[in-house]
Structures are given as structure tokens and as C-alpha cells.
Amino acid sequence: MNFILPRYAGAIAESVVNEPVEAEVGVDASATDAAVAPPAINAGATKGDGLGCHAGAAELKAAASVAGKSDILDRYATDYPKGPHDQPQSMCPAFGSLRVGLRMRRTATILSGSACCVYGLTFTSHFYGARRTVGYVPFNSETLVTGKLFEDIREAVFKLADPALYDTIIITNLCVPTASGVPLDLLPNEINGVRIIGIDVPGFGVPTHAEAKDVLAAAMLEYARKEVEQGPVQAPRGGKSERRTVTLVGEMFPADPVGIGMMLEPLGLAAGPVVPTREWRELYAALDGSVVAAIHPFYTASFRQFDLAGRKIVGSAPVGHDGTEAWLEAIGAACNVGRDKIEHAKGRFLPMIKAALAAKPIDARITVSGYEGSELLVARLLIESGADVPYVGTACPRTQWSDADREWLEAKGTRVQYRASLEMDLAAVDEFKPRLAIGTTPVVQKAKQLAIPSLYFTNLISARPLFGVAGAGSLAQVVNAALANQGRFNEMKDFFGDVGEGHAAGVWEDTPRDNVAFREKYKRQIEAQAKKRKAEEMI
User: Fold this and answer.
1) Does an H or E element contain 169, and which?
2) Per-residue confidence of the chain (539 residues) as pLDDT tens digits?
3) Is 404 helix (H, G, I), strand (E, B) or coil?
4) What crossing angle do the helices spanning 209-230 and 94-102 adopt, rounded to 10°?
5) DSSP secondary structure letters along 269-281
6) Is 482 strand, coil or helix?
7) Cα separations in angstroms, 538 against 130, 340, 527, 531
8) Where are the beta strands (DSSP E) in 298-441?
9) Which DSSP string corresponds to 42-92?
10) C-alpha to C-alpha distance for 448 and 142, rounded to whole angstroms
11) Cβ count near 368 (within 10 Å)
């Protein structure tokens, strides 16, 4: 089997001989290297060598553009518009795409980036339960500038491409290789029948780890879509569904697809694969669905692939009573389901959901924030359970697929903040003084310092069913248990007082005392310096 190395694009092209070269796939990597000289990197395009994560987003982005990555950065800027903060305020975004690859059967993952970044990502992936080796191609200033890093990546891919072990190999450029223009698109698309997918996931181009999941999911969907266009592909592991299917987009609690499938059954439909998928062949079934459910609304690039495949996309999700009713209507309409079947499904499940919500009420003011993409859905469920939710913040961007949720929440008096910064989430806790704060780790910390019960969104809220009958009462148990801890917080606050706060923070041998005279003297000095600078500016 032959492959043709494609041409460079952008600034790097000037340093490369743009003649396609054919080589046999399936031979030893060293033998292939002898037959095909790996392309050289334009040293002039990588004069920013030495820039690390500490260099700042602007410098890294400028270097990447010079090195020929402007097209992909422009696409990311369109797909994932940034908000009030320029850099992610959570984990490295590449963690999202890394987890997607590590969850897939017969899939190998390789990272190309600074050693500290790779260590952190690998550690975090294993902390969250990954049981796979993460490949790493190290580099230094010389290999980065001369193009040897690309050769090393290429050699690693050839050595790893064993069809007995893998269907796919995923190579991810982190910040520094992306900024230096390492061209993963020049890798062959396939080696020995093993698919090769290279993606760039720089922190200065992809705002959140949630959207990095979309980067990889979309790349795989595009590859699979082109395979489908060329001829027959593998059937799903469990065989092709006899009913038309609904593809579900967005990571969710394992029981949720089952519950959604039960609600689709009266419509004559079945739940299809969940994207991101757990194995390659599921991508074909996902593309074969009659309609796509945008459970998580930020998968912009993936939705583009479904559009190209001619599939309709339905926003929101079957959450709570109102959300389930609207979602069943929208799915039924998209699949041309008869009115009698839609009404039958609604009549069967809506009363059960309403009863479950009434059986486990929540009576409290709650603020919601997070970076998973399901924050608006959680807020809807809390409100239908009886809670007052004045604020919901999500690190993800606003898209058309979340409009229904946003409009419903705003009609209930909820302030919806897309691309919420940490400062916005913390300000909401101060402004609304909730009885419970649901959010990221720093939000939880802030709330607990104020003696407000709080729950970490990712581990305690996302890890529960949210949809249909099962989701209707799932949050009430953990939320009401947290609210019941208010007495314990009050006792601790009364006992410890302000110990460890403000001037008393830190470790002391004696009881710390507030030096009021020194503080006032220092305050006067600062004010005097400010007046002096102001006077100098006027001159």
C-alpha cells in the first residue's frame, strides 16, 4: 500500500521541497526513513524557540501564526470564541482530548509537548482512572528548530502502528510544538491499516478542556465520514439497530443513555452511540443516526461534521418536566414521528417525572457554576425541584444549541453567564449569598470559608443521572444532604472565629496581634506614593 506525503502550507512551505514522495507502508521505520527524507522545518519560522507556557498566550499565538498554524488557530477562534479571560482558568485544555483518546478501545495516544506539561497531563489522567500508557516524544531546542522532533514523532508512529493492537493512533501537539509549527498534518493518514490522527490542542487556542474533547471528536468524525463515503465500514459491535437511532453528543452519566433510550422507545426510535465514542466503529453508527441530540451544546466542530453528513441537530436535553416535553417534541418532529406516538411518549413519562420532582423537593437558593458544559441543564433541574437559582455560570461559550435552555432559565429570573471567569463565579456567591454553592474547586473553597455548604460540580453533580425519570430526583439527595450541614458550618465558624484569616493567616508561635499603628502608617505611605505618581503624570 502506498501513501503520498502532502505538501506544507503557510510560512513553512518555503523550506520544503514540494514534490510528493511515495513510500511503502508496512516496513520498518528506519527503512522508510531511508526511502523518504522527512521534511525540514523552516528555522526562520521557529525563531521563537525557547518560548514555553510561561511566555504568554499572545507570544505563543504569534509564533504559531508565523510557523504556519494561522489557519487552525483562526478556526479555533471561530469555533471556540473566548470570553472575559484570555487563558483557561481550569486545567490544561489538552486534558479533555487526552481523556477522550484514553477511553477508546484499541487506541494509542502520543503527546508532543514540554516534559512538565506531559507529566502533569499523564498524572491527572491516571488520577482520573486511565489505565493506559501515554506515549511521549521528548524534544529540546535543537530538535525543535531543526525539524528532528517531527522525524521523531514520525518514527514513533511507524513503530507503534501495529494493526493487531490498534485501530487508531492519536498524536497531540501541546503549546510549544504548536507554536513552533510542528506539522502533524504531514504524517500519513494510515500506516499498516492503523489510522493516524494528529491534532493541535494549545492552551492559547482552545479555551477549555471541554472544547478540546470536541477537537478530537470532530477530527475522528471527519476521518470516519470520509471512510463511509468511500465504501462499506464496520458494523456496530452489537449489530445495526432495527429502529432509527438518535446520536447523543456529550459525555454523560452511564445510566443516562439507557434512560433516554427508554423515552425514545414509544417514538419508534432508539438511543444511538454517545459522542465522544468508546471505539472507532461507533463513529460510523453515530454518523448513521437519524438525528443528532446536542446534549452538550459546545461541540461546534463535531456538529459541523454531522451537518456535512446531512443530519439534523436538536438542542437541549430531556431534563426535568419542561425540558423532556420540549425535547420529545423536537426529536419527534425531526424524525417525522406521528403525533400519536409523541403524545403517547409524553403521557407515559411526564407524569412520572413530575411525581419524582415533587417527591424530593429542594427549598434553597443555589448558585451553579462549572466547566463541563451541562451547567444550564443542572440549573433547570434544580429549579424544577423547587430551588431558587439566581446565577448559572459556564466556562463554555454560547451556541445556538443552548438557546432553549438559556431562554427557559432567563424566563425564571436566572442570570446566565457564558464564558464565566472565576471572578464572576466568586462575585455571584458574594452577591446572591446562596445557601448552597455548586461550582469549581476555588468556588467551593470560597463558599466554605464563608460557612456556606458547597459541592464540587464535576465529581458530585456531573457524576449523577440528569435526564428523564432517573434524573428528576437524583440531585435532591446530594443537595439536601449538603444543605443539612449548615449547622455544622455554623458551629465551626463560632468555634474558630477569624483565626487564620487576614493578618492572622500563617503559622504563629504566639497568638497573632493586629498592629493597627503599623497598618495605618503603611496605608499613609501608599497614599502618599499614589499622589506623587499622579502629580508626576500631570507634569
Assistant:
1) strand 168-173
2) 232 223 223 333 333 333 333 333 333 433 344 344 444 444 444 444 445 556 666 777 777 777 778 888 889 889 999 877 665 567 889 999 999 999 999 999 999 998 888 999 999 888 877 888 899 999 888 888 888 999 999 999 999 999 999 999 999 999 889 988 899 999 999 999 999 999 999 988 899 999 999 999 999 999 999 999 998 888 888 888 889 999 999 998 899 999 999 999 999 999 999 999 999 999 999 999 999 999 999 999 999 999 999 999 999 999 999 999 999 999 999 999 999 999 999 999 999 999 999 999 999 999 999 999 999 999 999 999 999 999 999 999 999 999 999 999 999 999 999 999 999 999 999 999 999 999 999 999 999 989 999 999 988 998 889 999 999 888 998 999 999 999 998 888 888 877 777 777 777 777 777 778 888 888 889 999 988 888 877 76
3) helix
4) 50
5) EEEEEEESPSSTH
6) helix
7) 60, 77, 17, 11
8) 312-314, 365-370, 388-394, 415-417, 436-439
9) -GGGGTTTT--GGG-HHHHHHHHIIIIIHHHHHHHHHHS---S-SS-SSS-
10) 49
11) 32
Element (H, E) at 325: helix 320-334
Amino acid at 348: R
Give every CB contact of residue 525 below 8 A, 6+ residues apart in sequence. Answer: none
Q: Which three cell numbers, joined as nine digits, stand for 366?
A: 443555589
d(CA 350, CA 129): 36
Count the helix, strand and coil residues of the chain and give each as a percent rounded to the nearest 5.
50, 15, 35
Q: Which uninterrupted H or E stretch holds 246? A: strand 244-249
Q: Distance between CA atoms of 233 and 246, rounded to whole angstroms? A: 19
For β-strands 168-173 and 107-112, DSSP reports them as parallel
Sequence-distant (≥ 6) Cβ neighbours of residue 340 within 8 angstroms: none
